[in-house]
C-alpha cells in the first residue's frame, strides 16, 4: 500500500487519463488490424478506491486499490480470440495482440461471433451525472465509519456487539473502441457507508445491518442515521417465534423484492434462452404478471447506477418496456445472444441499464395493514432457486403479521413456490422504492406462498 493511495485525490485528472486510454485503445486496434484481424474490439479500464473498516471503536482494515486492464478481442472471420494485459509498454501491447490472433487462428468458427452491426453503434455518447469524486482520505473515512458504528451501538443498551462499519469510495474509467470506428468513454464514482450490529446476548443474539450507497458523497445518508437504522433492524429481530406452516401472503420488503426482479432478468436473458436453460423459454408475448404491472428499462436516468448511451458491444441503448400490462415484451440481448436466437440485439450486452417497477399501492405500512395475516421477508438465505424449472425455496427471516400489524419476529423459516406462479400472483408493488440499486422497486406482495415455519 502506497502513501498516495491513502491520500485524497484533490484534482480531477480523469479527462487526461481517459485520453490516454483512448490512445491505447486506438493503438491496439491498429496493431490488430495490421496483424490481419478482420474485426477488433478493445476495452480499457482503470479503477481506484479506498475502503476503511472499523469494529468496536477501533480501526480494523484500510484497503486501497488501483487497478487497470486492457482486454482485446480479435476476429478472423467467425473465429475469435481474446487476450488481456495491464502493461502499457509497446512490447506488451504487441505481445497481447499476437496472443489474441494466435488463439483466433486455432479456434473453430462460430456463426454468431463478430462485432455488433455497425449501423447499431451509438451515434451520441452522453454523460449522466455519474462522476462525483470524493476527496476522502483514510483518516476521514475512519472517522465516518466510527461515527456510524457509534450511532448504532449507542442507540439501545440491547445492542451487545458489532460486526463493524465501513466506508468506501471508488472511481472507474472505461473506454470501449472497435474497428467500426466507434469509441465510447465512461466514468463513474460510487461511495458507501454501512454498518452491521448484533442485538441480544447468548443464544438469543440477532444480527442485522443497513447501508447507504450513492454516486456522490451528498447522496449518502448521515453515518449516525445509518447506524441507528442498523440498530433498529437488529432489535426488531429479537425474540423470534415459530409460525404455523401453511400458505400465506408474503410481502418481500423492497430490499428483498429486487431479487425477484433479478430472477426475471436471469430467465429472459439471451444466454438462458439460447441455452434452453430457463423456466421462461419462448415467453415473449405471454402474460407473466397482473395486467396493471409494468417494468421498464431506463438507461438515460440522470445519476442512475447503470445509465449509459451504449452497451458493452457499443450498441446504442434505448428506453423500453420489459413488461407492459403484465406481458413480457422482449428478452435481454446482446449481439451474440441475439444472433444465436435469430433476433435483434436489445442493447443489453453486459446487462440491463436501470430497471424500474411501477407501483400500484402505497407505502410499506399500508401493505402490512392490507395483508391481514402473513409474512414480511427482510432477509433471504441460500440458493434454492432452480432457473430451469422456476422452483423457489429459500431460507428467510422477517416479521410475522397478525390483523394487519407486526406481531413478532421470525427466523429459520422457508418460503417456497414457483417463480412463474409467484409472478402471476403479485398483488401489489409498494411506492417505498429502495434507491440503492439499478433495480428500483418497492415492496412486492405475493398473494399466496408456502411458509414452513418449523412449528
Question: Can you describe this structure?
Answer:
It is a single chain. By secondary structure, the chain is α+β, with helices and mostly antiparallel strands. The protein folds into two domains: 3-233, 2-Layer Sandwich (PmbA/TldD fold), CATH 3.30.2290.10; 240-455, no CATH class. It is built from ten helices and 17 strands. It has helices spanning 3-6, 14-34, 90-105, 138-153, 223-236, 254-267, 270-274, 335-341, 364-371, 419-424, and strands at 39-55, 58-76, 79-85, 159-178, 183-199, 206-214, 246-252, 295-297, 320-324, 327-328, 355-357, 374-381, 391-402, 405-418, 426-429, 439-440, 444-452. The strands form three sheets. A six-stranded antiparallel β-sheet has the order 3-2-1-4-5-6. Strands 7-12-13-14-17 form a five-stranded mixed barrel. Strands 10-9-8-11-16 form a five-stranded mixed β-sheet, covered by helices on one side. It starts with a helix and ends with a strand.
Quick check: average pLDDT?
Answer: 95
Shape: globular
Helix and strand pattern: HHEEEHHEEEHEHHEEEHEHEEEHEEE
Name the helicity range: 10-25%
End-to-end C-alpha gap: 53 Å
User: β content, as a range?
Assistant: 25-35%
CATH class of the largest domain: Alpha Beta
Count, helices: 10
Strand neighbour order, sheet with most strands: 3-2-1-4-5-6
Unreliable spans: 1-7
Amino acid at each position: 500500500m502506497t502513501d498516495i493511495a491513502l491520500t485524497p485525490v484533490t484534482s480531477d485528472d480523469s479527462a487526461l487519463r481517459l485520453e490516454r486510454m483512448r490512445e491505447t485503445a486506438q493503438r491496439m486496434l491498429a496493431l490488430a488490424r495490421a496483424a490481419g484481424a478482420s474485426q477488433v474490439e478493445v476495452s480499457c479500464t482503470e479503477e481506484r478506491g479506498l475502503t476503511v473498516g472499523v469494529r468496536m471503536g477501533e480501526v480494523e482494515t484500510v484497503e486501497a486499490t488501483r487497478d487497470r486492464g486492457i482486454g482485446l478481442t480479435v476476429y478472423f472471420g467467425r473465429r475469435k480470440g481474446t487476450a488481456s494485459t495491464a502493461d502499457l509498454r509497446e512490447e506488451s501491447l504487441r505481445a497481447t495482440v499476437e496472443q489474441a490472433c494466435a488463439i483466433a487462428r486455432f479456434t473453430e468458427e462460430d456463426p454468431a461471433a463478430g462485432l455488433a452491426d455497425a449501423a447499431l453503434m451509438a451515434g451520441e455518447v452522453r454523460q449522466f451525472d455519474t462522476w462525483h469524486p470524493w476527496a476522502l482520505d483514510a483518516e476521514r473515512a475512519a472517522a465516518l465509519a466510527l461515527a456510524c458504528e457509534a450511532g448504532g451501538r449507542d442507540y439501545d443498551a440491547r445492542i451487545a456487539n458489532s460486526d463493524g462499519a465501513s466506508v468506501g469510495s471508488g472511481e472507474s474509467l472505461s473506454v470501449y473502441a472497435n474497428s467500426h470506428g466507434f469509441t465510447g468513454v465512461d466514468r463513474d464514482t460510487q461511495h458507501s457507508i454501512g454498518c452491521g450490529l448484533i442485538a441480544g446476548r447468548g443464544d438469543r443474539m440477532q444480527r442485522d445491518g443497513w447501508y447507504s450507497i450513492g454516486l456522490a458523497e451528498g447522496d449518502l445518508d448521515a453515518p449516525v442515521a445509518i447506524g441507528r437504522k442498523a440498530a433498529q433492524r437488529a432489535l426488531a429481530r429479537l425474540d423470534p417465534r415459530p409460525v404455523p406452516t401453511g400458505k400465506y401472503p408474503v410481502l418481500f420488503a423492497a430490499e428483498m423484492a429486487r431479487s425477484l426482479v433479478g430472477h426475471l432478468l436471469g430467465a429472459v436473458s439471451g444466454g438462458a434462452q439460447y441455452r434452453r436453460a430457463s423456466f421462461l423459454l419462448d415467453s415473449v408475448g405471454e402474460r407473466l404478471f397482473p395486467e396493471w404491472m409494468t417494468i421498464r428499462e431506463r438507461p438515460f436516468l440522470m445519476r442512475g447506477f447503470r445509465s449509459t448511451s451504449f452497451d458493452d458491444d457499443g450498441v446504442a441503448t434505448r428506453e423500453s418496456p420489459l413488461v407492459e400490462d403484465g406481458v413480457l415484451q422482449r428478452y435481454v440481448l446482446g449481439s451474440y445472444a441475439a444472433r444465436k436466437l435469430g433476433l435483434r440485439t436489445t442493447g443489453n450486452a453486459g446487462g440491463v441499464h436501470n430497471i424500474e417497477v411501477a407501483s400500484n399501492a402505497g407505502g410499506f405500512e399500508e401493505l402490512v395493514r392490507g395483508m391481514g395475516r402473513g409474512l414480511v421477508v427482510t432477509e433471504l438465505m441460500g440458493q434454492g432457486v432452480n432457473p430451469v424449472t422456476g422452483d423457489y425455496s429459500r431460507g428467510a427471516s422477517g416479521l410475522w403479521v397478525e390483523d394487519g400489524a407486526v406481531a413478532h419476529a421470525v427466523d429459520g423459516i422457508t418460503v417456497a413456490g414457483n417463480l412463474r406462479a409467484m409472478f402471476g400472483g403479485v398483488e401489489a408493488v409498494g411506492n417505498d422504492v429502495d434507491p440503492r440499486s439499478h433495480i428500483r422497486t418497492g415492496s412486492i406482495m405475493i398473494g399466496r406462498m408456502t411458509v414452513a415455519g418449523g412449528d
